[in-house]
Amino acid sequence: MKPFTKLTSSAVPLPIEDVDTDQIIPARFLKAVTRDGFGENLFRDWRFDKLNQPKEDFVLNNPTYSGQILVAGANFGCGSSREHAAWAIGDYGFRVVVSSYFADIFRGNALNNGILPLVVSPSLLDEILQTIEVNPAAAFTIDLEAQTFKNETTGTVSTFDIDSYKKTCLINGYDDIDYLLSQSDLIDKFERERIDFSLK
Amino acid sequence: MPKTLFDKVWDAHVVTEIPGGNQVLYIDRHLIHEVTSPQAFNGLRRRKLPLLRKDRIVATADHNVPTINQHKPITEPLSAKQVRMLTENCAEFGVSLYGLGHPYQGIVHVIGPELGITRPGITMVCGDSHTSTHGAFGAIAFGIGTSQVEQVMATQCLLLTKPQKMRINVDGDLAPGVTAKDIILYIISQIGTGGGTGYFVEYAGSAIRALSMEGRMTICNMSIEMGARGGLIAPDQTTFDYLKGREFSPKGKDWDEAVAYWSSLPTEEGAQFDVELNYKAEDISPMVTYGTNPGMGMGVKEAIPVSSEVHNKASIDKAMKYMGLEAGKQLENHPIDYVFIGSCTNSRIEDLRAVVGLVGNSKVAEGVTAIVVPGSQQVSKQAISEGLDQKLIAAGFEFREAGCSACLGMNEDKVPAGKYCVSTSNRNFEGRQGPGARTILASPLTAAAAAITGRVTDVRELI
Ligand code: SF4
């Protein structure tokens, strides 16, 4: 997993609520058997028309907006458990998604792929979107170590929550699997000692 | 302190707790399918790790399979490749596979319960968000991403923070024509697609207790549609009667011991939940969705709201544009083009019986394509032995072979752009049933009613 420590970037606004995983990556693109190349089909049906021509009114096709931060409406990533959604976002080049809250499975998938799902208050989300509206090139800085988010235009610095274990994983690029493997003695003991009523 | 069902099952599976509050949770059962497993198997190979517990993992092919001529090779090359990879991976790692052609093949959430793989008191995961279905048995069951699929393969454990607890009580009696699907669509319409985020939900109350296992599975299935991590229902005699004698259910003395243990699981009087919601069964009417997420639902007689408690005007306007509908107007009597009866929400034998019962001697309306896709080979076999297939075909339905089908349109079964489909599945997201497809979620009864009238119909007027 790619480590994440600090990032300063402009941001891409997607002020839509309940963006579901079928929009992030439609089911027909889930036929791949590797993790690569999903960025091409990120937001496929919002991005391209039936003839595969870019839709001009969609933000990813607007050269005014760019950057490694995606700023989205509440409940981002609801729907399916497909990790392909996180792969598509990462493969496209985003490292951070900012929203007022995330669907649980998506949040976990993002963290497992070195993408930071950054939760901000609804009012801060509005402020960020306004800043981008005024200046599409406006920069934001995320410092994971310090757990701070800075709007470089207004100078406001806010802190964000992240659980300490996940933070360590992101900073060092560790997977959960590394940690779980280190616990194999305990897992083994658990299996031997428990009274397994449920599985007879 | 009195404990909840959720706490009892969760706490019994915690291997250890780590600083920061995460817990290592032991997983009893792991189901896999062709779409979300190939990258996990690749991961094991890359790290040179074995599959830790072959006896706790079961595979099937469902998402990508054709529902016509399943005995022939899959024609779509990418689907064929994915299904072939599953077969090869399962062979290499020693996983039991109920693949195409196997009498146990079917939608992963249909076959788990019908084989008795699912049972009370266990933890169960699958790389699929509707794993919540299995919670109907009093199991902790939830969907996971592919990285986690790999973790469970390698360690039989996951690192998780314990979710909060919500209880949703539905008391009273359902009116005729109102089903489990209507209950869950009603609940989601009240709390929205994010209302359950961060929670594990226990469904309780007399209306839930009165449901069959099929109905309970329909409810738990859609827990994810309100953002909940999962849903569960206390095991009781209905649960035990369903499980008794199933392929992998305990037998003899083991059965008696298991039932004694399962009977100790229900939430105790006075146990605390972080949130508790109460609904009355009498307030629920046959439901339909009008928009592009499962929270955009209403009673079939109601008018589409301009805005609601859980959806602002911008969201509804966006949905109306996609759906070709108008806020403020009714959806009842709106013409429809397709009817899809299937998916892990409503493709069990009880659903098919309900459809046949309602259709009777009527015919599918002119111009409507109506397909019935049983959830599994076993459901299909049962339907055929009861003559349901012949009755459906005589009425003008297509009777297909088992799979996910038009629920997500990964195979050939898609709804064309701009067409309206009344569907018994669980998601009406933009493009879910095919690019541009317009989905109206409903119960099997409401879907059957639409098939014969060619319009969105209040099923109560046909019974
Ligand atoms: S039937 Fe639909 S919701 Fe259920 S597992 Fe298949 S694709 Fe997912």
Notes on the structure:
The complex is a heterodimer of chains A (200) and B (463). Chain A starts with 5 loop residues before the first strand and ends in a 7-residue tail after the last helix. Chain A is globular, with a radius of gyration of 19 Å. Chain A is an alpha/beta fold and 200 residues long. Chain A has a 7-stranded mixed beta sheet. Chain A has one domain (6-173): Aconitase, domain 4. The mean pLDDT of chain A is 95. Chain A has 8 helices and 7 strands. Chain B contains 15 helices and 19 strands. Chain B is of the alpha/beta class and 463 residues long. Chain B has 3 domains: 5-160, Aconitase, domain 3 (2-Layer Sandwich); 164-283, Aconitase, Domain 2 (3-Layer(aba) Sandwich), CATH 3.40.1060.10; 290-461, 2-Layer Sandwich (Aconitase, domain 3). In chain B, the strands form 5 sheets. In chain B, strands 5-4-3-6-7 form a 5-stranded parallel beta sheet. In chain B, strands 17-16-15-18-19 form a 5-stranded parallel beta sheet, with helices on one face. Chain B has a 4-stranded parallel beta sheet with strand order 11-10-9-12. At the A-B interface, helix 4, helix 6, helix 7 and helix 8 of A face helix 2, helix 3, helix 5, strand 8 and helix 10 of B. The structure holds iron/sulfur cluster (SF4). Iron/sulfur cluster (SF4) binds at residues 62-63, 107, 109, 128, 130, 343-344, 404, 407-408, 425-426 of chain B. The site of iron/sulfur cluster (SF4) has 13 residues of chain B, from loops.
The CATH superfamily title of chain A: Aconitase, domain 4
Instruction: Tell me the CATH architecture of chain A.
Output: Alpha-Beta Barrel
Percent of residues in helices of chain B comes to 25-40%
User: Remind me, CATH topology of chain A?
Assistant: Aconitase, domain 4
The residue-averaged pLDDT of chain A reads: 95
Which structural category fits the helices and strands of chain A?
alpha/beta
Query: What is Rg of chain A?
Result: 19 Å
Number of strands of chain B: 19
Number of domains in the coordinates of chain A?
1
C-alpha termini separation of chain A: 39 Å
Enzyme class (chain A): lyase
InterPro entries (chain A): 3-IsopropMal_deHydase_ssu, Aconitase/3IPM_dehydase_swvl, AconitaseA/IPMdHydase_ssu_swvl, IPMI_Swivel, LeuD
Pathway (chain A): Amino-acid biosynthesis; L-leucine biosynthesis; L-leucine from 3-methyl-2-oxobutanoate: step 2/4
Keywords (chain A): Amino-acid biosynthesis, Branched-chain amino acid biosynthesis, Leucine biosynthesis, Lyase
